[in-house]
Amino acid sequence: MAHTKQNPLRLPKNRDHLIARAIDADDSCISVGGLAANLGMLRDAGRTGSVRRAAPAPAAPLRSQGIEAVARLVQLTRRRLGVSPEQFAAQTDLELRELVALESAQAAPEPRVLYQLSQALEVSYEKLLTLVGHRQRRDEALEREALLFEAHSGPMDRLSKSESRALQDFIRALSD
Amino acid sequence: MSPHATTLRRVATGKQEAAELHDALSLDDLLDAETLWAPAKIQVAKAFLARSVAGEQWPQSLHWNWAEKARGLKPYAPGPFSAYRLFGLRAEAQWQGVLLGSCVAHPTRLAPGGQDLVYIDFVESAPWNWALPAIGQIPRFKGIGVQLVELAIRWSVDLGFRGRLGLHSLPQSEAFYRGPCGMTDLGADPKAHALHYFELDESQARVFLGED
Amino acid sequence: MNDKRTMTLNLTPAEMEALDALARKKDLSKTAVIRQALRLYQLVDIRVAQGEKLFFEDELQKKKLELMVLG
Asked: Could A8 and B122 be called an inter-chain contact, meaning their C-beta atoms sit closer than 8 Å?
């Protein structure tokens, strides 16, 4: 990619007031979405979904709840196995960045990722697709199981008895 | 490139340290920055995974993979008649932040309407400059965001757009554009994944630059 | 890079009026308008050369009209 120069910008000699404002500002989060949207890197939670999960449209809560449930499923399974993210990614034939995206629950996982997960966890690929919104048909029983699963799991290092039970119940619900 | 001397604050010591503003990066520079930042992003991700932090607390741009999308970046190559310009902030011989702006086909949505503005397509600071209390990370440097936005405003002035800017903010960044940048939040844009669209008009630009 | 070169542009009265009108509407100098036009031309040229197409879209009528770009 050849680069040709552009005319330099003129900046004032004294920018002390601007620098003072700059270093005082809370600028930890400055990312914007324009280029990512153009290059298809902003994946909606659903057709009418949004990047943020607060105040979604009526159809969106179920879909984002399903994505959260799958993320929690992966987290708890990995903790139950006691393996590192790299090991889990290798065992499930996923790339580390795909595992990161999966566990971050920020967007519906791609079908290929769900397929790998279904093979590794021996659960229904179709049910995973429905849960995260890739299928139009709703499965109310599955949605209820996902809600119960989320309610019974929390961010602890070792699985509690109730978390283990919740995980087993959810995997059973996902199986054919 | 035409570097301009500036400073950043190192958070750990509170002291200001030398940095450079660059106003004409190439796409290779952008990809070099992303190459440098990628391992740090993976470390952040691993730390979040290790602490099982809920998804909505993760940095919203963490999973973006620019290397995959590099081919799609070709139309954005800067040049004398390019619609795009890349700015960067450098310290410790590393890119600390980068901004990509475009100046064609982005009219203002504020009344009376129609005038061009500089649209910020992309801006990000290096992962080590993020405040991530969930994993106990404090930023290394502060002062990047406002100075990059300043360059975009000055480019807008140079083009004759009087400092007008526009952008679609990620949710986690809205407070920065509303507060320190003083931009107007025009609300969720249904054509842009419901991201909030912000604009800086010419009077707000003058305030930003301290010219009012 | 600060040195600029001068070019003479011959326009008809109608073209000059159109350029003036654009400059007023966009609150830009005529030179800035011409620079913007060149940027837009180059942007379209690059993307069409990559195999993309340029469309106008009428959202109300759900119609897309392809813009033919020659060259």
From this structure: no
